[in-house]
Amino acid sequence: MSRSVLSRKEKERVIRRLLIQAPPGEFVNAFDDLCLLIRDEKLMHHQGECAGHQHCQKYSVPLCIDGNPVLLSHHNVVGDYRFFDYQSKLSFKFDLLQNQLKDIQSHGIIRNETEYLRNVVLCALKLYVNDHYPTGNCNVLRKSVKNKEFLIACIEDHSYETRDCWNGLWKSKWIFQINPFLTQVTGRIFVQAHFFRAVNLHIEISKDLKESLEVVNQAQLALNFARLVEEQENIFQAAVLEELQELSNEALRKILRRDLPVTRTLIDWQRILSDLNLVMYPKLGYVIYSRSVLCNWII
């Protein structure tokens, strides 16, 4: 039986696709496993660098520069695999495989009213994140598109417990334009969990939002924005927990709906359901259940 041999371009495409599909917190594990299969160090290093750059943007990988958290995203990419941090005013490359900053350079910014507002919004957002996430990170970026100024606020928190066979991520992104009286906030909340003990279970949940925000002054805008984020994320959290509870009850009942031997003993179905819930759904709540005590329930 003949086996088709992949060309180099096909190998690159397959490797990159597999690495990009790696769940949050598992990129290095996926890379190491592929290295054992491919046995081409040069090819893997190049594809690992390209895919790692995309992975950082997709999952808002957090870094710490000069004591300040930085979230990597496509909004602070400045080309040539480089990212830019508004707080430290540095641009850099990030090697995800070695978890290391490289080629750090200074990068100036224009100081104007929008930059001042960015700092005010960041302060308000930090207060919210500190109250609701145990190890959360946030960034506020600014971007100019066709002479229009935008602020982009990013939030991230995660728990990667590879030894316990689960990983979970919560992240959100909020964008609004700097307008005089009223602005529209566009948001997206995203949750992903991976449970791989005995089964390989992936959960991805997201929601897109659009809300209006009144602009009075900079301080009031920052406070109203933080309240808006808190309200929408709380609503999303409650809805996800309710849906997961309904899903778990329905799935467990289907599992138990089968022929059982006659034992002439009373079966405590409620206790069995409770025990199975504890076994099957112990973890992802680290990302959803209580973001103030963030996270100990979902999968």
From TrEMBL:
Signal peptide: none annotated. One of its GO terms (biological process) is actin cytoskeleton organization. InterPro entries: CapZ_alpha, CapZ_alpha/beta, CapZ_alpha/beta_2, CapZ_alpha_1, F-actin_cap_asu_CS. GO terms for cellular component: cortical cytoskeleton; F-actin capping protein complex. It comes from the Eukaryota. Keywords: Actin capping, Actin-binding, Phosphoprotein. GO terms for molecular function: actin filament binding. F-actin-capping proteins bind in a Ca(2+)-independent manner to the fast growing ends of actin filaments (barbed end) thereby blocking the exchange of subunits at these ends. Unlike other capping proteins (such as gelsolin and severin), these proteins do not sever actin filaments. May play a role in the morphogenesis of spermatid. Belongs to the F-actin-capping protein alpha subunit family. Heterodimer of an alpha and a beta subunit. This is F-actin-capping protein subunit alpha. It comes from Leptonychotes weddellii (Weddell seal).
